[in-house]
Specification:
The protein is of the alpha+beta class. It is built from eight helices and eight strands. 30% of the residues are buried.
C-alpha cells in the first residue's frame, strides 16, 4: 500500500459516499492528476482486486477495508491536531493528508486512546472503528432545510479551508443549532440565526453544511 494507492482508495471511498459518480475524470479532478495517470492507477488497483471497473468505479471488500484504514487515520490525526495541538480546524486537513501515510498501527492506537476513542473528527466526520465497522451517511444539506426550522449542524465538509475558516468564525460548527430564515431569490444567500446573530450564507456554504431538522 503505497501513499498513492492509499490516496486513490480513500478518494474513491469519499466520492462514492458523497453520492458522486466515481469516474476517471472525477478522480483526475479530485486528485489533480492527469487522466492517463488515473487510468494507469485504476488498472493497477483492478489487477490487485481492490477496485471493480464498470461505468463507475467501486471498491471491492479488500479495497474498502484499505480505504477505511486511511480514512480512520486521517480523521484521528485531524482530531489530535485540533485537541492536542490546538490547531485551527481549517488547517488540519492538509497536515493530516501528509501524516496519514506514515502513521503506524501502534501510534494510531495510542492517539486513539489518548483522545478517549473519539467517534467524530472536528468537522463532524465519523471516524471508522478499528475493527472496520463504519457508517458514512450524510445528513440533510442546510441548503434544502425548510424556512422557519431549527437545524442542528452535524457535519461540515472540509474540502474548502477558506470556507471552514469563514464558517468557524461565525460559530457554524458541528453541534450548533441554527434558526433557518429566508432564502433570498435568484441564487442569493440563505439567512440563518446563530446565537441571536443573523448570518448570510452563500449557496456554496449552505452546500457544505449537513445536519438535521430539530424541534
Amino acid at each position: 500500500m503505497t501513499p498513492a494507492v492509499e490516496d486513490y482508495l480513500k478518494t474513491i471511498f469519499l466520492l462514492s459516499t458523497r453520492g458522486e459518480a466515481v469516474t476517471t475524470g472525477a478522480l483526475a479532478k479530485e486528485l489533480q492528476v492527469s487522466s492517463p495517470s488515473v487510468s494507469a492507477m485504476v488498472k493497477r488497483l483492478a489487477d490487485g482486486e481492490l477496485v471493480r471497473r464498470g461505468r463507475t468505479l467501486t471498491l471491492t471488500a479488500a479495497g474498502e477495508r484499505a480505504a477505511l484504514r486511511v480514512v480512520r487515520r486521517h480523521r484521528l490525526l485531524e482530531t489530535f491536531l485540533v485537541k492536542a495541538l490546538e490547531m485551527p480546524w481549517d488547517e488540519v486537513h492538509e497536515e493530516a493528508e501528509q501524516l496519514e501515510h506514515a502513521l503506524s498501527d501502534r501510534l494510531e492506537a495510542r492517539i486513539d486512546a489518548a483522545l478517549g476513542h473519539p467517534t467524530h473528527d472536528p468537522h463532524g466526520d465519523p471516524i471508522p472503528g478499528a475493527a472496520g465497522r463504519h457508517d458514512e451517511s450524510w445528513g440533510q444539506p442546510l441548503a434544502v432545510a425548510p424556512e422557519g426550522c431549527r437545524f442542528e449542524i452535524e457535519r461540515v465538509s472540509d474540502r474548502r479551508s477558506d470556507a471552514l475558516r469563514y464558517l468557524g468564525e461565525r460559530g457554524l460548527r458541528p453541534g450548533v443549532i441554527v434558526e433557518v430564515e429566508e432564502q433570498d431569490p435568484y441564487g442569493g444567500p440563505r439567512w440563518v440565526r446563530v446565537s441571536g446573530e443573523r448570518v448570510a450564507l452563500a449557496p456554496l456554504l449552505t452546500g457544505l453544511i449537513h445536519g438535521r431538522v430539530v424541534r
